[in-house]
Amino acid sequence: MQKTIFVLLDACRWDIGSANAGYLEHLVEVGRAAKYQVRGELPSMSRPMYETLMTGLPVSVHGIVNNQVCRRSLHPNLFSLCRSQGLVTAAACYFWMSELYNGAPFDPLSQRFQLGGDGDIQHGIFYWEDLYPDSHLYADGEFLRHTYDPDFLLLHSMNIDYWGHQRGSDSREYAAAAGAAMEHLARLLPAWMDEGYQIVVTADHGMNALGHHGGPTWEQRTVPLYVISPLCVPGRYEEEEVSQLLIAPLVCRMLDLSRPQGMLRESSLPGLEAPGPRP
Fold first, then answer.
1. Calpha distance 186→175 (Å, rounded)
2. Preceding omega of 108 cis (within 30 degrees of 0)
3. Residue 261 lies in a domain
4. pLDDT range class, residue 274, cuts 50, 70, 90
């Protein structure tokens, strides 16, 4: 098992994310990362897809059917699976993650910092403004990483989503937000890689030109996935879309976690090395 960092770029659709991910694309070109084109689940909304990414389950099973369903997850998730095996979890992310994995409703006055708690997210820093700067978000994540040395760390930025809603995905502002998020990430990736972390970078959903998401169109549901791990042979696996449901089982394999019932086998993901150690 190697420590794993999961970066979730909210609403970063496939083409705009790829066009602005200069350093990640470089890592693919020089054989240090694998890249996939992911077909997101439906509805292409944030809270349902957070639960899908963390549980590996479709919406019809996990029941978070839209952004208004405010309750704690009812299913095993990457955080709870880690905690059950004594691993340390941490997250710097939007407050909906706190509601899903530590308890709802979220109180910003008392629950922004949840450090050393007994929820699925053991050490959390949560924000509630969609324009909370991505630069601050990554700094929050680095504080958690250096202070608590988590085995599984989630970093979740919202600025791409914010500008997509304000100006649409064809706008200069949306592309600039994607580029800025990627630049912040590029400053951190070399150190993470040098320290032996496995890294997953993806999105929950995309965005259309009208500034909406939730539906089945390519713009709203197709997102990139970059993986840096000895489990994935570096290269481009972009010709065919892969299911978003494969991401959680991939992370389980990275962390040597047993897959819970209902989660797909990650073995159908192209470019994987030897079979996972557990059924």
1. 16
2. no
3. yes
4. low
The arithmetic mean of pLDDT across residues 206-234, rounded, is: 97
End-to-end C-alpha distance for the chain, whole angstroms: 16
Q: How far apart are CA 125 and CA 157, in angstroms?
A: 12
> Minimal CA–CA distance to 270: which of 244, 236, 245?
236
pLDDT band at 273 (very low <50, low <70, confident <90, very high): confident
The token duo for 174 is 């949306």
Dist. CA 89–CA 33, nearest whole Å: 24
Asked whether 91 and 156 are in contact (CB, 8 A), the reply is: yes
Give the C-alpha separation, 266 to 157, whole Å.
26
Mean pLDDT over all residues of the chain? Answer: 96
Q: What is the pLDDT of residue 277?
A: 43
User: Is residue 252 a contact partner of residue 263, using CB atoms and an 8 Å limit?
Assistant: yes
Total structural domains within the chain: 1
Rounded to a whole number of angstroms, the CA Rg of the chain reads: 17
Cβ contacts of 239 within 8 Å, gap of 6 or more: none
Structure tokens at 178: 């994607």
Q: Looking at residue 194, which CATH number applies to its domain?
A: 3.40.720.10
| 199 occurs within a structural domain | yes
Concatenated DSSP letters of 116-142: S-SSSSSEEEEE--TTS-HHHHHHHHH
